[in-house]
Amino acid sequence: MIYFIIAGVSGVTLATSIIASRKIFFELLEASVSLSNEVLSKEDERIKQKKLISALKRILISLLKLFGAVVFIAGATILPIVLYSLITNTSYESLDVSSTWFFISLSIGSVIPFLFKKKKSDDNYSEASKLLHKLILNNYNLSKLLFSFDRKFKKGEKIENKSEFVIVSGLARAGTTSLTDQLFKAGKFSSLDYSNMPFLLAPNLWKKMYNPKKAKLKERKHGDKMMFGLNTIEALEEYFFKVFLNDSFIRDSVLTKHEINEEVYDKYITYQSLIRTDNSHFYLSKNNNLILRYPSLRSLNKEFKAIFLFRKPEDHAYSLLNQHLRFSEFQTDDDFVETYMDWLGHHEFGYNQKVFSFDDKPTQINYDKNTLDYWLSVWLNYYNYLISLDDTDFILIDYQDYLSYPKEVLVYLQNKLKMEFDLSNVEPFKNNKTIDTSGCDKNLLQKTGSLYQALKQKKVSF
């Protein structure tokens, strides 16, 4: 009887050591997929060769770690039986290691560690889910392959390419999420949502395997009472540009203005057709990085609608500062939050926050990121460039107008888009918060105030 209890203890140590070594198995899987990703690369052969060698080295190191882990697991598993043999002075040959009861005891023991679940993290991403995200989103060539598969997969559905689409944009915290959500609920739009993660470039293939019908809503991390679930639309299309531009516009501290060529543009329109569920639907997206490629995108397409929002600078800067402090804390507690934001090209705030650069000169802001002045400078940098575009093709909306007159804003957009909206659930918002700017740079406040008035001269009036 005692011997079978010891066999159960061996089962416990077997499962416990496997759990303790799981990251080594994950590392080998990541290295293997990374090697496959480099094999798929169409880069210059010399560059490709260097990356292949680096990927091979990573696999060899992972294999060595795996060998060590296997030795450790085997040793941990047999240790209780070895100790039992030594204490009871029983020879190894006489030990029962093949009977049904031995395997039952070992199996029961190996199940016990898995019954003690780890506390669920606030982001609801399990280790397996995080691993899947890494395998897909870290490997651009694999994502491109999935994109080509998805194109062939949906070819029979006859969803036509459409040059008319809608992008909602602006500096983060300008109300872009709320307006995009209102548009999606009111009109005939198709858009990416959280259920498309992590197969962002293969939405139809992934939908065959994972297609949640109902999703519990909860407040997003921003703390702004915006609710989301797996079926909630989100700013996810930026991953497309990261992949097909190979992160060329992402630098250490800035996101740079860049051009879209016809090849990438054609793929982008095809990508939209993969997401659209009906030929009558318009593609809708929120993308705060649109401004970096807007001129070149507009030169290729005169028909799409771009909606830019702006907000009173001190209110906007305060909101950005608040989110920066909030997400920096989240990223300190869980580095997956920063990784997740980097995958999606969200560099608006947090440790990896980056400023928009609209020319060849580096954008320098000589204020601390934890001050209102820094975020007022970010606001000034963004909207100085936007107003300089002198483009009558985009729609400029004041956030305050959207708060006070949301129905009127949507009626205006309805007419511009030549669509019929359901406006039955549209209600005005209230925001009576007053921001203390007494400690801010007076010159900076004067500049932002003047620019704000200039933007109000160009906005849509209601």
TrEMBL record:
Domain of life: Bacteria
Transmembrane helix among keywords: yes
UniProt keywords, alphabetically: Membrane, Transmembrane, Transmembrane helix
TM ranges: 59-87, 99-116
UniProt KW Membrane keyword: yes
Protein's recorded name: Sulfotransferase family protein
Taxonomic lineage from the root: Bacteria, Pseudomonadati, Bacteroidota, Flavobacteriia, Flavobacteriales
